[in-house]
Design brief:
The chain has one helix at 33-44; strands at residues 3-13, 17-26, 51-54, 78-80. By secondary structure, the protein is α+β, with helices and mostly antiparallel strands.
Length: 87
């Protein structure tokens, strides 16, 4: 409920070759990104994003479509990884 918009892509990963990561714009700054990652873990299991990159806005073309090829970690204001002890 706290996510305004998001995109999920693959990113190079030393261990797996490629890992799922998510780029998101939050509706409310008070939203806890850890809650988003916990929810993804509970719903998606091993398919969950390894990392969550938070942005002010996702890059879009002139028609408003998200440009996934333009997404990169350098755009992120914050990078979040799930902090938990129980998987």
């Amino acid at each position: 409920a706290g996510v305004q918009e998001a995109a999920v892509i693959g990113e190079a990963d030393a261990e797996w070759g490629q890992a799922v990561v998510a780029y998101a714009v939050l509706k409310d700054a008070a939203c806890d990104p850890q809650d988003i990652l916990r929810h993804a873990r509970d719903v998606l299991g091993f398919k969950r994003p390894k990392r969550l990159y938070l942005l002010d806005e996702l890059p879009k073309n002139t028609t408003g479509k998200i440009q996934k090829k333009a997404l990169n970690p350098g755009l992120a204001q914050r990078t979040i990884e799930l902090k938990d002890t129980a998987a």
